[in-house]
């Protein structure tokens, strides 16, 4: 696995203004260097994220799921090297770093699986007497009206199939 020289900013990697030593916690020996950003790089990253948030918000559930699963797969493929790096960087035992890496892969895979569940939910509108016999639902629909991605809520009230109670009252 190659390590990038810079930091992820925008569509690529930006040169970092500084690098700092990464040291093994037990003896202080240098195990490598890492790029360190500054306020300007952070501002560029935030500006880029804001500029593409509308486009990203319109991605389909299938695309979002594929991206998240791809991250999980890439982490799983790189796990042996990342585990070794974690040992050196944190000084934790190998077994703990393996567990941490497995947890990271599982978290990204769970996020990918959850995308399929973000389809909406029913809302009990019959909590009040005026909502008797009704239910609502919401779905996630990203708004394209602004540069920032916002989830809009769509509510719909629909009577369920006639319940025996409602049918009796309607017959009176």
Structural commentary:
It is a single chain. Helices cover 46% and strands 18% of the residues. The protein is built from 4 helices and 8 strands, in the order ββββαααββββα. The protein has helices spanning 39-57, 61-90, 94-115, 164-171, and strands at residues 7-9, 12-14, 18-23, 30-36, 121-123, 136-138, 140-142, 151-153. A two-stranded antiparallel ribbon has the order 1-2. Strands 3-4 form a two-stranded antiparallel ribbon. Strands 5-6 form a two-stranded antiparallel sheet.
Q: What's the Cα radius of gyration?
A: 25 Å
Beta-strand percent range? 15-25%
Termini separation (Å)? 75 Å
Helix content: 40-55%
Strand elements, count: 8
Question: What is the molecular shape?
Answer: elongated
Quaternary state reads single chain
Strand order in the sheet with the most strands: 1-2
**Which structural class do you get from the secondary structure elements?**
alpha+beta
Main sheet properties: 2 strands, antiparallel
Order of helices and strands: EEEEHHHEEEEH
């Amino acid at each position: 696995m190659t390590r990038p020289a810079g930091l992820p900013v925008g569509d690529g990697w930006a040169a970092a203004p500084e690098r700092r030593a990464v040291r093994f916690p037990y003896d202080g020996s240098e195990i490598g260097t890492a790029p360190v950003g500054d306020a300007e790089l952070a501002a560029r990253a935030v500006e880029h994220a804001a500029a593409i948030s509308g486009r990203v918000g319109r991605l389909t559930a299938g695309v979002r799921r594929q991206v998240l699963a791809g991250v999980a797969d890439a982490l799983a493929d790189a796990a042996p090297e990342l585990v070794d790096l974690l040992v050196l960087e944190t000084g934790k035992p190998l077994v703990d770093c393996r567990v941490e890496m497995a947890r990271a892969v599982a978290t990204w895979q769970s996020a990918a699986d959850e995308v399929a569940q973000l389809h909406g939910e029913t809302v009990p509108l019959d909590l009040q007497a005026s909502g008797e016999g009704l239910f609502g639902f919401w779905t996630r629909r990203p708004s394209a009206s602004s540069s920032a991605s916002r989830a809009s809520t769509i509510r719909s009230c629909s009577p369920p199939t006639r319940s025996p109670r409602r049918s009796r009252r309607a017959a009176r």
